[in-house]
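ok here's aspartate--tRNA ligase:
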Amino acid sequence: MAEPQAPAESTQSPKDVIDAPAEGEKAPSKNELKKRAKEAEKAKKAAERAAKEAEQAAARAAAEVDYAQQNYGKLPLNQSQERTGRPRAQISTFNASKDGEEVLLRARVHTSRAQGGLDLIWFIVADDSFYHDSGSKMVFFALRQKQHTVQALVSVTPETVSKQMVKWAASVPLESIVLVEGVIKRSPEEIKGATTKDAEVHIKKIHTISEPDVRLPFNLEDADKAQTDERDAPTVSFDTRLNNRVLDLRTQTSQSIFVLQSAVTDLFRESLKAQGFIEIHSPKLQGAATESGASVFKVDYFKGNAFLAQSPQLAKQMAIGADFERVYEIGPVFRAENSFTHRHLTEFTGLDLEMTIEEHYHEVVDVLDSMLLHIFNGLKTKYSTDIEAIRRVFPSTEFTWLEKTLRLQWKEGIALLREHKVEIDDFEDLSTENEKLLGRLVKEKYNTDYYILDKFPTAIRPFYTMPDPVDNRYSNSYDFFMRGEEILSGAQRVHDAKMLEQRMVEVGIDPKSMQGYLDGFRMGISPHGGGGIGLERVVMLFLKLNNIRNASLFPRDPKRLEPLVIQLEASLRRATPFPGLDIDSDLIFIACPERKAKPNPVCNRYYALLTTAINLWPPDNAIFQQCTSSPFLTIPVDVFKEIALFLNPGDILALARLNKFLRNLLMQRSAAHIWRAAEKNVELLPPCPRHLSTSRSNRGGAADLILKVCGITVMRRMDEHLSVRLCNACRNSSVVGLSQLSSDIAPYVPISPFIKNPSKANRAFALRSDVESIERKLCRLPEELDQQTYKRWDSKRRRRIKERVKHAIALLRYNGITEVLRDDEIEDKKYQRIQDVRARLRARGWKEKHILMIQHDSENMWERLMDIPKPITDRTWERLYPKLLRLLKIHKSRLRTIRSNNRRWARHDLLDELLSEKRANLSACVELADGDSALIKGQTPVHMPFPGLNEVLEYHVFKELLETDRTVEATRSKFRANDGLVNNAILRWRNGLENHLIRIVKEARNAQKRELLTCQALMEEPLPFSTKLTASSYKHISPKNNILFRADNVFKFHNERTLMFYPGSFTKFFDSTREMEELGGGLTASHLLPTLIEYSGEGNSIAAALLKELGRPDASSIEMDALAFPTLRRTNFIHRGPVLSHQQVSHYSWEYNQAIRYNSESYQHPGIVYNNVHDWKTQSDRPLVRLLDDQEVEAHKASPLPPIGQFVDCQLCHDMDVDVPAIGPRKYVVLHLRFIHGISQPELGKHFIERASMIGGGLIVGSSASSELEE
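and the structure:
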């Protein structure tokens, strides 16, 4: 293409260019020179024009010759005219090894893509021209047979494939059935978009056998996307797929699903035939409802009624009675269950079997188990390719099973659920949630998705199920589970006629209505059992398809009897966009008060059709397909144009998309006045710019959508420089970088740095269409162009660019305003919807608190129902109210539960208070009898352990008082009326505690006996305690619990050194535990006892030695706690004040453990020897304690203690990082240094320091320490 130079860059005009005269010749005159120049220029232009015309004529002639006319087109209707017998190839057999082989195949067009040019139709107003370009040179197809696809291509080839053939191939609709003849070629690289990865077909001939007559409701590629795919194009809704099930079944995923479904039935037959089963076919019409009258379909049967078989159960049993021994059936099953769930259908395919039993019903379980394992293994080994293809769309983990199937008893399953805090009765059927939870627990514990649950309760099984011989509350029945959902239900059947008739009466079935069935049992029948499997459910769970409808060919549920049943007129009534529109069979009248004017009555019906069709856009709506067929073809053009004047640009744009008739009518230049009139109906809409036609302007602005080349709706912000909004694909193909533009073109095209991510080479971009348009305009410029004309042309181009930017900014401003207004309108509609719903609920008697509870507790569900900008009509309310009613009932029940729980807590607090009063009134305690011992100091009674409320709730009287829903006063009266039962429960609790402690003591003493017998010694049994108590104390003491009151029976906490004596320490223990509960401690004392209380053998030995030395070996803990001894311990350290027995035992136990600790290897330090006399086992020659006489006590009291200020620290202990350095008076630390560290002459500042100069804790060395050192 020639690129003209601007006049400003030229130094000579064409008239100044002349031929220079030859040397010696006379120069021609000026007129002669001008004449010669003109003639030469004319001759040159004529030659160029002739050459160009010849070239164009040759190109047109070559383009018009179609040498491949016989190689493409539509075949005549196949009426079996002839049979050539040519073999047809199968795509599944194609691979690179067949390179060069010619094939003939029939397939569907899965996808098609033209390459080598764009097919665009734009209106260009700037130069009053219409531009159409179609330049495709190659078309890629994906051809499909069932679930197999192969890439095929048609490209222009001399004498074989013409340009017309390629163009025709590009127009073949998707899902057309084509007959293709071509050659298989090895692909140089892996083909990702087809199942055949290493080969493709080069097409020589292509003919269509059948083409779709209507626009497809969805693209098969969209329907076959993974559910987690987040690409721009949305996946097809599930309802749309089911409404167009025939098209949906063409997807590769659906093809693979039903290949696997067929495989399941084949493997089912294969397994059972190998085990001696025969196939039967039972009738599906029955004279009586079998299992439950509410779950069967009732149909008219001549003059009576019949029922569709809920299962072939009765027919299978009658076949067993006919001595068929082992039978199976594959057939339809009907269930009239109004369950719209992911796993229920009203009609499905049942895989049923029945067999005789020789000894035990587990023979049937073994057969069923082996059959299912055969199916699982067959699917995994033979159909792995199909399984992987399905997983690309339905991602899932691999289905797992054990080599030996897990079998759980019903009780084991219930126990597993209860371990995870599920409240369920022993004989309550499993809900769907509990089934799934049990499946997850089994998966976590046993790593299997497949298991068997045996011994179901009789109450939840059919009447013909055999009860368990040991416990008739359970039955010989079983269920098989996959991924936590039941797939098979079976049992041993009742084969005794009398028992069977009795079971019928119990469940409400009239035996006379099933007389033929009973007669088969009266004539004798073998013990037998069996089960039934849902084919669709097995496929769904094995592949984890999420919804059973994906595994059903044409699913039937309570809301779906046909793929699509729509009455056009009824749908129009529901779909009319204006609230004032009334429709009847003859004439449609319209009243739209918001319109500025109304069309005349003659246009009413057409107006209603138009506005309804606009409202039904996009075209995947089924009603839209019916609305866009014939009615619009009958509209007179002048009537239509009159109607269109009352629409807005968005309405006209939607109409232009309906069919070719409306598109041709509205997109032509003569329809510009319609668009301009529509613009006036929209406030603030900017006028159409110069660079666009009115139709294209409104297509980009009024509808707030910019559709470019591909027609995909893009929601990103419009570019303000280029006035477009492009999808990702179009941005790559329709945008060129600034570096690719010549200097002559760049100034005259709009350029934007934002339409695409900049790179080093290109910082700004322009539209390819704008570039091509400027190139064409430059080509049409005359070669003789003066500077003034060029400047006018240049300023005009630059002005157009500014106008485009200005219009884009105005359009963006308009879009921003309309978005805000639209958002406000939507929010107002949502608010009005909520207020309308609340008013309707209040009118039905619901209180405001119930409505508020729904809004707070079910916020997500409430938003899904309310966050819709649509008004509540009566029809909408009929669909909405049942959903709200379920929520209201749930939360009303929850409100009752909350109130009940509040009343329960009030009863709990009351019972706690009454129990405290009971404790004060009973005064259960033991105390010493009066004696003359001078050692008794301030004797106080010892209280027996008393339970808290949480510890006695296991007893019926307290449980009934707490759980029965009654008022506080009624509970108080009931408590007082049951005083005897309350006292008995308290006594039983104390007896249980004592029995537990007695068992601990006996176990410890038995262990000591075994140790002593090994050492050839003998251990005597303990005698009862010899302490004298008051008469009232003995009512709490018996020969059985006497042993607990001995002072040498010592208990302790688990892993703790704190010692406990019965009963005083235990009373304090329970009281402190309850205080912890009130502060949020969590567990109750009854829970703590089994794990935290142990017998202290060490404390027992110390206490026995102490009591022996005090002369009271058989004293009780009550006596020893009441006595205070002035004693001299082994350390010669006199305790200032009375020392109780349990304090001394605790002291020696603690010090003994310290001695063991510091003499261990981990605590040894060089230069230090520990000599702890509390190690009473190594110092057994000396008594633990001795009583002092009065003189020794007085002398000890008179001895002064060293002042704190004279304390010093041992520096050597600090230097060696001893855990407890020596701290004390100076003379005692000096002795410590001499005897422990071996320092004969300790020095201040070197071996010990003043206490004031050290910060830290240590072991205080006092008189007891000096005694230890001296000894």
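+1. The mean pLDDT is 75.
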